[in-house]
Amino acid sequence: MIKRFLYSQKVAPYVFVLPFVLVFAIFWVYPLLSSFQMSFQQITLGQDSSFVGLDNYSKLLTDTVFLKAVVNSAVYMVLTLVILIPFPMLFAVLINNRLMWGREFFKSSFFFPALTSVVVAGTIFRLMFGEMEGSLINSVLGLFGLEPVKFLKGQTTGFIALLSLATWRWTGVNMLYFLSGLKSIPDDYYEAASIDGASSFQKFTRITMPLLKPVTIYVLTISIYAGLAMFIESMMLWNGNNSPKNIGLTIVGYLYRQGIEKNNLGYAAAVGIVLLLITMIINLTQLAFTGLFKKED
Amino acid sequence: MKVNKWFILLAALSLVLFMSGCGKSSGTAGGEQSVLDGGAGDNATELSYWTFVELHGKHFEKMLGKWNAANPDRQIKLNVTVMPYDDMHNKLSIALQTGTGAPDIADIELGKFPDFLKGTPQLEPLNDVIDPYRDTLVKSRVDLYSKDGVNYGIPTHVGASVAFYNTEILQEAGVDYTQIITWDDFKKAGIQVYEKTGKSMGTADTSATWQESMLLAQQGADFTDEQGNPKVNSPEMAKALTILKDLQDNNVIATIAGGQPDTEEAYGEFNSGKYATAFMPLWMMSRYTNYMSDLSGKIAIAPIPVIEPGMPRSVGGGGTGTVVTKTAKDIQLAKDFLAFAKLSEDANIEIWNTLGFDPVNMNVWSMQDVTHNPDNEFVKYFINNPFDVLNEIKDEIKLIKSVPASPTINNVLNTVTLNEIFEDGKDIQQALDDAQKQIEQELK
């Protein structure tokens, strides 16, 4: 009986898919539904939770700190997109060029930061951007006769530090995505273009960029998500979740502050649901806009 | 076909193993762990203890040996885990909330304590073990960790705030710190220090409210009203910040890296002699001995300046309440040990000897042989004896209340308001009104 069951061509696929389905259901669907439910509740330490309807959401709408977190996350996301798509693409093209020397060296040295723990990297960047005269960046500024800057206390300067960390860390990873995309473009196209007298720039804009589109969309999608979900970088850079005037507070940071630090799990769940909605809306719009849902010809 | 069968079996087995692994807790809380046995035998009960101050473990180690010697049939092994401040409180909060994984005994810092008293506290009442010692303790410090007359935490120290002066800098500028009585005196001295040495007399703190607490206590005010509602835009608060801002505008005080004296960056700044004064609770002494060794023999302790002579010259600052959780293995044993380790006279003497804290048993304050022991590292480090100052101000140590709104008040002031005032020069009343609005909004 069991044998027949396991050898059945109809049943077997389900058995093999089952582990994934279970993991997906237990670690994704269940928490999602449960946090959706929690977002309508008031939950206090050691108490029975009670339903409060839309209270958490209506409070969120007037919460200026939450708004600040949303703006911070959005600005961070946009700026990482501006930096982390064109530059890695350019580097990938340069490294892919046969005339380029030390290709393997550049590939690995660009990728190396991704292997470093963000906790360690964040701590080092915090020291580099410290406000003391002796901290690395300030001592470099000192060489040019500039006054020390309190990097981590200002909105703009704080973001410079945050974006430097993101750029240092993710350029190599995105570059690898683009490199793998470049490998799939046949050399014939470039040869044909050369015969027709196309310049390097024309080849880049007419052949490379359009053919890299699927990779670009992928990088764009994960970068939008990563930008909006950023948390640890900020936490490490400011040595905790509380940056001066909340300049480094992100949506996830606010979720953490409410849920874990303030024990307000219902409210935190509402923050999480809003984050999910924002990410979904932006990404689905972007995917529809870039034509991913269109039928392939 | 045989291979297929084995493969399916293996797949099924790994799935079962994987699923069964989900329910197990890892059993460790992370952080630095050490087991103290204090000479305990095999029958000892092992209790776990979480703290965010490594030094507290040292004190418990001493008291554990004494407990085990005195109670052969109730011996204890203490499993101490030290974690960073935020980490420990967050983990403890989650463990208590879910009802699993909490330690038997834990330290909870004053600023976080109200969060743990919300609803029905998941902590054991400690009245019965505090009662025998109650007469010897500073009442306000015990009451800090209470709710509706029930004590949930045992205090570690009084935390009387004092001024720490770097006499080397002051001498260079020709300033005598013993003549500083009021903030006006402090301002005059500070201007002189800045003109003569180019150094700052003190710090303008942006990430802690020690200074505001001191100035509020002098005026008999608080961050909250009688009912515990936030009141940060009061005239007293505006006056406190106006005094501090005026000092900053005259180069008497300046913002410091790290935002306040009790941070790693600030230890470095003090150690290299860039600031002459820190206004902090007495426990700051242990930071001097541990992290600012260059200043040994240069620091004097004195009462903090007041707005007008006759105002109270100190306020209790910071503190840690040690608690027994509801899920503790042996609740009575944990409670008895805790009282022995923190409330007995012996414990209070050790708190001074090991930690350099001002103990909550004030009888110790007048034990000359203990407080003036020439071998004590704190007595050796500072120019004058801390207890000479403490005894001078002991009837003037005021209290800033710790209420459910306190964590939110601290968060808003320390991340936003003080930065706006001291870094951006925002109008004080405006900044305070905004803070009040924000706090009320968050507490809604």
TrEMBL record, chain A:
Transmembrane segments: 12-30, 74-96, 108-129, 159-179, 215-238, 265-289
Protein localization: Cell membrane
Location of the ABC transmembrane type-1 domain: 70-286
UniProt xrefs under SUPFAM superfamilies: MetI-like
Membrane topology: Multi-pass membrane protein
Coiled-coil stretches noted in the UniProt entry, renumbered to this chain: none
The keyword Transmembrane appears for this protein: yes
The family this protein is said to belong to: Belongs to the binding-protein-dependent transport system permease family.
Xref: PANTHER family: ABC TRANSPORTER PERMEASE PROTEIN, INNER MEMBRANE ABC TRANSPORTER PERMEASE PROTEIN YCJO
Stated name of the protein: L-arabinose transport system permease protein AraP
Natural source organism: Paenibacillus physcomitrellae
Classification of source organism: Bacteria, Bacillati, Bacillota, Bacilli, Bacillales
From TrEMBL, chain B:
SUPFAM superfamilies found in the cross-reference section: Periplasmic binding protein-like II (SSF53850)
PROSITE patterns in the record: PROKAR_LIPOPROTEIN (PS51257)
Signal peptide limits: 1-25
Keywords: Cell membrane, Lipoprotein, Membrane, Palmitate, Signal
Keyword Ribosomal protein: no
Family annotation (InterPro entries): Bact_solute-bd_prot1 (IPR050490), SBP (IPR006059)
Name this polypeptide is given: Arabinose-binding protein
Organism ancestry: Bacteria, Bacillati, Bacillota, Bacilli, Bacillales
Gene from which the chain derives: araN
